[in-house]
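FAQ: What does the model actually see?

It sees only this:
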Amino acid sequence: MKIIAELGINHRGSTEVAGQLINIAAEAGAWGAKFQYRAKHGFYQATNEIGDEILSREIDDNYIPPERVLQLVDLIKQQGMAAGISFFKSGDAADFGDDISRFDFFKVPSAELLNEDLISAMAGFGKPLILSTGGHSEEDIFNAIDRTRDIPDVIFLHCISNYPVLLGNQQMGFLRTLKERTALPVGYSSHDQDWEVCLVAAANGATVFERHLTMDKFGKGIDDSSSSDPEEFRRMCRLLNAYETVQGTGRREVNQGERINMQNLGSSLYASRDIAPGETLDARNTVIKAPRKGLTWADVKQRGLKAVKRRVTEGSAISDLHFSGPKPPLNKKLIAFCDEKQLSIPVRLHDAKALQTRFPIKNYELHLSYEEVATFGGSMEEGLARLDLSRHYSIHIPDYIDSKTLIDPLSSDEATVAGSDRVIGTCVDLALELESRTGAAVPVVGSFSRLLEEGKRATYGRLQDYLDRTGRKRGIPVYPQWLPRIAWYFGGADILDMFCGADDIEILNDIGMELCLDLSHLILSANYAKQDWHGWYEKLVPLARHLHIADAVGIDGEGIEFGKGDLGDPGAYIDGPGRKVLEIWQGHLSEGDGFEKAILQLGEQHG
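And it is asked to produce this:
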């Protein structure tokens, strides 16, 4: 979507106010900003009527000379936007001389849609040309379309020339007619009392939007009532810029948050008592409970599952695993491949023994819950007894310190700081203990997603000091993890603004902050920003000391099977120093079937 902030005369003739409006438009996410220009003297010949007198005085009072307009053009471009201008007669363009080429696009306003000389002059500048259609009949508009077919880069805007346009007078369906008639992109010039109708315009095919921006929509300027104030403009840009993402592809894809919620909110079968091999499931030995960690009755009936082949202990979720025989360990060739490439898989304390039996590789990443961290905090030996200490480990700090609180060691809340210190400190204690028992380094990884009010640079500086103090100075590096723009916390979507944007890359390189680079998260965050993730990778990989490898698609399709997303050949990332963790979504299920599939794929292609 291309959103143009029309400055019109809402700058009150002040370059300072115009600059403020430009900065607001850029911060909101506008594609461009545009001026209206009429020569200082002589535009109005007759000012006898009240309306003419008012408009003439407004134009004269709000005049900004060309040299100051051009200074503002530089500001627009510095902010990464396109700069445009409207003329009402072709002679006024001469006031800019050769500097007219500094504008990126031109617009012919609605009142001059039939002015062939003006349209020809504007087209002659060789830049995109926008034509607004307000106040004209279908016949006039269609004639204008036919007369401009030979002009490249023309966009027609549907427009109702009332100031403001009251709800119900938009005739928005004409956009579809306009698009069919031009066979080109079309847009909407909004003077609406309710900016939200721009969303209706988008639904009818508009991809270019022009909306007046003012500092005060209740001000005394003649355009104020048909303009948006900064907050309205931000909301409009936010929703229109997200429009294509909101629309999706036309297919129904289940997102990561839904998967988590279906698991957490759904129910499945659990053993109400120990079930011996050979027994058939029925109401006497099962109970339906949440969360959905196993099979439902529908699954059992649909798959024709009968007697279990493995013992099910009381309270366990009944899964596919219980209907299969023992799964053989990973073959020796693939074990050697994993160890050569330093490939690692995530294990949890409760499934470590089973996964380490099936995957007797050298490296693992211990993914801890806050309750498991508390176990290590209370008794280190109890937790260590559940791990094979002949192996090597990294540790992933939990995202939460309790069921309601995200980890945030820089929080203004004392309880959150104390809880974060406890969790992070225990993970560092565990890393030191594992290092002494295994003889190998134990890097620690954590997600730090909360931004301080002081801004990003202050947040990163304080976080780096904290991690150095709590980890590195004790001999254990704690690496913050690159994050997706959309995180699934507490069953809902949270839009992050740390470790997920182009501006974060710049700061991290400036301060030299080492990190864990998660490729799945990198793809998602770059897709959200509509950037090429490979370019981000090249800028971040010099800082990466730990790597998570997984495929991803879109803005929230995390950890999917290799080859199903945007990663491409994962083999490009498995060479080189350091451990690489295969972060496959729910790869641990059925004693690691997802991990085995990923390792088989990598081994066949690169072993």
